[in-house]
Every structure is written in C-alpha cells, then in structure tokens.
C-alpha cells in the first residue's frame, strides 16, 4: 500500500479529522490507493420505515420537498437530483420537523433509496414551524474510491445537497429557505431551514428566477465530451449565479475556448464578463483535475477559487460548502440556457493564483463546472 491507513479519512459521524492536513493531502499529486468497500448506501436508521403522508392544505409538503431534492429515482440509488463525486452519495439527512408539515413533529432519518423516513425521537422544544434538514456525511462511501482525496469532495457534495433542498423549497413556494453553510459545525456539516409557505397560499407565485419542479427533476450531469464555447449571454448568467451564491470567500472565473481562449471573470456591473487572462488554460485544468483529459476540449470551465493553504477548518468547510452550493445553482442556470454541464470536484496542485503570477498558496481551485453547447441532435435520442 502506498499510504498508511491513517491517511484515509475518518469514516464515521463525529470522528475528528484534521481538515487542513486532509485538504493538503487531497491537493497533492499522490494517487489514491485501490478501492475499498463503500459500505451501506443509507444509514441503518432504527425502527420501521414510514411513508411520508400526503400534505393537507396549508401544510409544508415534505414528500415533494424530498422528491425534488434528494430522493433516488431508481433502485440502484445512483440516479438522484444531486451531483456527487463518483455517484457515491455520502450525504445523510436528518429532519427536525416542527408544526405545519406533512409529518408529525419530531426528528426523522431520511432514506433516499426508498423515499421513507424513520422516527428517531422528539424534536427540541424550541423547534419552530416548518422543517430543518441537517446534513452530515458517511465519509467511507467517498473514501472507498477517492481515498485521501475524499474530504473536499465530501464537503462539496454536502453543498450540492443543501442547494437541492433550497431550490426544492423555492419551487414549492417557500420564499426564503435558509441554508446554513457557515462551516462552524463538524456534525451536521450544514443545514437548510425551510419555513412554512406564505400564509393563506401553499404555492404563492414564484419569481421568474425560481426553478420549476420540472427543471429540478430534469437536471443531470452530462457525460463528456462537452464541446462548444457558450455564448457571452449564457456565460454571464452562469458566472453571475455562481458569484451571487458563493459568498464572500470565493472568487469566480471561467476558462473559455476558441475563438478567444482565456480566463474571464464577472464584471462589476454584471455586463459582459471581462477578460482576466489571455491564453489556453483548459489543458492545464485537465491535468489538475485528476488528469481528466476531456476537460481540455470542454467549451468552458467555471472555476471557484480561494481557500488559502493556511485556512483553518471552519474556513475550509465554509468555502467548500459554499462552492458546492453555488455550482449546483450555476448548473441549473446553465441547463436553463441550453448548455451541457458537469461538475468537476477533484483538483490536485491547482494553485491558480500562482499560475497567474500571484503569491503561491492563496488562490486554489475549489470546485468547477465544465460547460459546453448542447446541439439539437443531442437533446433527444432518436
């Protein structure tokens, strides 16, 4: 074995992990060990599985919320609304249910393979109406394939799951779901608070920026290749979405292909993206992204960057959670604009700041989204 066992991430909830050291290993050029067993795809929740009741008028529809965000669409569990590195889906969900929901108040464990819940106990006395989805991870699932590269992927996957819950709540008419991605907690890593819809209306009229249930169920990561440079309008929309959702710790840019290859970044006035650097960056990105050669031919690659080498654990959690959250929203925006898209989570030696001549160790690539044009012949199989 190339690496000792202590280089593998902790595999259980609540196990301490030296996150700065884990991230440094994940960013190195070392290759993971051979695969190990991933273990069960769902926690062994106690008690019998319970169907989620149909919502009555004015209740928050938890069945629909979870169907649009986390539920598996097939028996294998691979096909789900959320992106996940290697389709390993390490994120586990507990629901803290208050009044006004289609489930009685209490704490529940969610089984996304069967779309069922397990009652775990009472909710805290201070639980407000609505539901809070608490997100934690079973690290073993991702470490089984990615080994020492697992921890940034676990955090990105959690950010994607939080975004899926946020978008599902918006699609059901909840105006202000609250994602909690501050990075302060090791377990749960993140949470999404979903209050009840507006009084007197279960489905108030949504803004045009909200994604519909149909769009949420149709999202998929498109397999490579992803050729074709997006037009300026679509690229601006994707960049703007990511920058708005990513918080203050991340900066965003996109590596674009011909006819003018280079790096672009959001303009301060939200007009056409401005040029950050000239030259072809995609082959370098392909080498940095675990050697995925197809990235060199992608039409564009959205990049989240930041998280310096001396970042502490809360900063690491926060930036990766936010990056996963923002890339998920950018992915949906890309699909709405007719693009093909695929998240790219594994990056090694990807010090973009140093490559652009800045101080090394300050501006690492945290997450990416490969983009390409979607030709009519590819939209529907013949």
**Proportion of residues in β-strands:** 15-25%
Tell me the number of helical segments per DSSP (H or I, 4 or more residues long): 10
Bulk shape: globular
Secondary-structure element series? HHEEEEHHEEHHEEEHEHEHEH
Rounded radius of gyration (Å): 20 Å
**Structural class assignment:** alpha+beta
Helix content range: 25-40%
Beta strands, count: 12
Question: Major sheet, described briefly?
Answer: 6 strands, antiparallel
Q: What is the mean predicted local confidence, pLDDT? A: 91
The neighbouring-strand order within the major sheet is 3-2-1-4-6-5
Separation of the first and last Cα atoms: 47 Å
Low-confidence stretches: 1-8, 201-208, 375-382
Explain briefly what this protein structure is.
The chain has helices at 19-27, 62-67, 139-146, 150-171, 213-218, 232-245, 282-288, 313-336, 352-355, 376-379, and strands spanning 91-97, 106-111, 116-121, 131-137, 178-180, 190-194, 250-256, 262-265, 274-278, 300-306, 339-344, 364-373.
Present the secondary structure layout.
Layout: H1 19-27, H2 62-67, E1 91-97, E2 106-111, E3 116-121, E4 131-137, H3 139-146, H4 150-171, E5 178-180, E6 190-194, H5 213-218, H6 232-245, E7 250-256, E8 262-265, E9 274-278, H7 282-288, E10 300-306, H8 313-336, E11 339-344, H9 352-355, E12 364-373, H10 376-379
Antiparallel strand pairs: 1-2, 1-4, 2-3, 4-6, 5-6, 7-8, 7-10, 8-9, 10-12, 11-12
Helix pairs in contact: 3-4, 4-8, 6-8
